Amino acid sequence: METDGTYESRDTRGGAVPRPAGFTADPGAAASGPTREPADGRPADGEQQPPARPADRPLPPAGPVVPHTRSVVPPPPTHAPTRVGVAEWLRIPRPAAEPGVWRLGHRPRPQEEPDLVPARRLFAGAVISLLSGWLLWSLLWNGYLGRYWLWPLLVLTPDSWRTDAETWATASYAYYTLVGGGFLVFFARIGHVPDIWRRYAHKKDAPPPPPPPAADPVDWPELRDAGLTEAAGTLADATRRGTLGDVDYARIRRAWQGVRTRPERLAAFTEAVRTRGAAACGHPSGVRDLPVRSATHDLATAQVLIGTAADHPRNPYARRTTGVALEPGLLGTSLLAVGPAGAGKTVRLVRPVVESLCLQALANRAAVVAVTSHGSALGPDESFDVVVSVGRPDSTHDLDLYGGADDPDEAARILAEALVGDLVADSRRAATALAQLIGPFRAAHGRFPAVPELRELLGGTPGALDALRAAVGDDPAQLRELDARQRQAARGDDVGELLAERIAFLDRPAFARFFRTDGETRQFSLHAVEHPLRVRVDLPERGHAEASRIVSRLLLAQFSEAILARRDRSLFACLVLDDATYTVTGESVRSVQRLRSANAGVVLALRSLEDVPEALRGPLLGAVGCRMAFAGIAPWDGGRFAETWGTEWVQTRDVTNRQIISDEPLTKALHFMRRVVTGKAATAEAVTVREVERQRWSASDLAHAVPAGHAVLSLTHVRGEHTPPLLVDLRS
Predict the structure, then answer these.
(1) How far apart are CA 345 and CA 339, in angstroms?
(2) Residue 79 confidence (pLDDT)
(3) Residue 327 parent element (H or E)
(4) FRET partner for 727 with CA separation of 20 to 30 A, picked from 64, 288, 305, 655?
(5) 342 has which bridge partners?
(6) pLDDT digit string (tens) for 394-426?
(7) Does the pLDDT at position 385 exceed 90?
(8) Cβ atoms within 10 A of the Cβ of 281, count?
(9) Where are the alpha helices (DSSP H) in 262-387?
(10) 308-334: b (≥16 Cβ within 10 Å) or e
């Protein structure tokens, strides 16, 4: 039960695991699954609150809310969402758009490119038209064309005006102005002068009109409509004063969405806003912003800007020069990025995505686990709640080898996938061999074996199985498991030997304090993704490449298992692998396909598809919804992407020009004038229009025609909407 905002839950190893205050603070959880009540309390002055480090199964349902009224609140955010203030940022329109379009201030473009007259022809025509008008006016003014054009003036004016010189002069000049102005307008329209004005002089982008007072988001109209006038006034005042940041806005909006589905939370929400203002419904860590931002974010739409669609013929005209952004709706279909070292995958894709997910975690909307090599540029330690540095003595957390599993069969399945998933097509035999050992060990010792103990059991160390048999006692089920393992080992079963060889990569002095199961270290388990956590796992340093790959596969297997088993799926969860080399297995490909329905996804970054078993390259590209090919990929990698993206029907025009040659002087003069105006010789054209089928992006184009700093990206939304592959400039 909830008492002072802190949970005490029983670990799988029998120890009490403290839960930080606010772990149940999720008043904005959607109605798709069980949710937890908000707890807005914060540590008292001088009290150090540990970050969220759950290591066991999901927590029991929370009890009633007890709002806190402490005066200590986290400091206001230090980053503005844009160069304007929060109030102005909220008023920027965000029209609905296709998947991947940066919606903040987006202005839709026409679907087809307008047929514009070339500038040279446009200006030449305007000059010739105005000169023609001036010539006609000069001829009329000097009387070379007669005086008939003055007849309306003589007919429409009284005879008395002609006797008054001043009146007649005024009427005459007014008439001249009217006729001259008419000539000017007429010949200006013939010369397309208005088109020149609209193209070069007219302001293209007028500022959007301010929203009506009743719909101004700064005033929190949803709360006012619900009768929460005081809460809306508090938040509106904080927004205008700048003490409410974009993360605060997203977090409180999510809390309000939860209140609308759970009316019993209304009192707690109102009290939290009254006592804590912009810091209400806070993240368990008490943090309201990241210490640094390297990308452009829009927390109102949960988007992060990664680049701009290039003004390239391969891109649809409506998407050219528009911003390209990623969001949970796209990452929920998973993303595969392939590019050589130095292509900028980490800086231009992985870090912005991780940064965006960390901001959404602070808004109680998401949970992120980023796996990277030690010292990579995914952000400072202060941007994460938990940092696990595998193989480093200064790491504050251990990694749970068994993913917090209680069932020996589940733990064996996860561990077998990590150890031999890249070597065998089916790891079920390996999982059975592991279960035959870790099941009896858990029954005898109340815990799973540590790495050295598991290596001794798999490697057939003399006396290891006998000691375990003696510890099991008279339990017939566990004795049968040990007998089966001994019979398989006696028949020369190579699965046990293979597992022993692979587990040896983790049984090194560098990992002596890791993967312990005796409860002496603080362990992190992937089952913590039920909470809005920010986690970074630093893989071992150089010299332990195989161990790093085993840990990556272990985390991917644990993530898939935890996601499919979690009860509350309202939080979006994402696993980001900065280097997924030799991480993809047959089971992981099948798991990726199931994550979409569980409101989760993975981001896999690879140097080449050669790092994936050949039989899995096609299924992997088919399993993910978002695919990204960076500049510099190999032609064979480009061929895989080209095959996945398929073909399209395009219209081609074959134009045959034949120059017209004439001997007539007048015709020669006309052709000369046409060449001066248009810049082209007089020709006769024969146009043939055909529809042909071609690849959207060929292997050669992907390998050689993508400029540096660019990538070709296709996107799929969890709703099923998708976009064709776009050439994206990642530098803008």
Answers:
(1) 7
(2) 67
(3) none
(4) 655
(5) none
(6) 888 889 899 888 899 999 999 999 999 888 888
(7) yes
(8) 28
(9) 266-276, 328-331, 345, 351-362
(10) bbbeeeebbebbbebbbbbbbbbbbbb
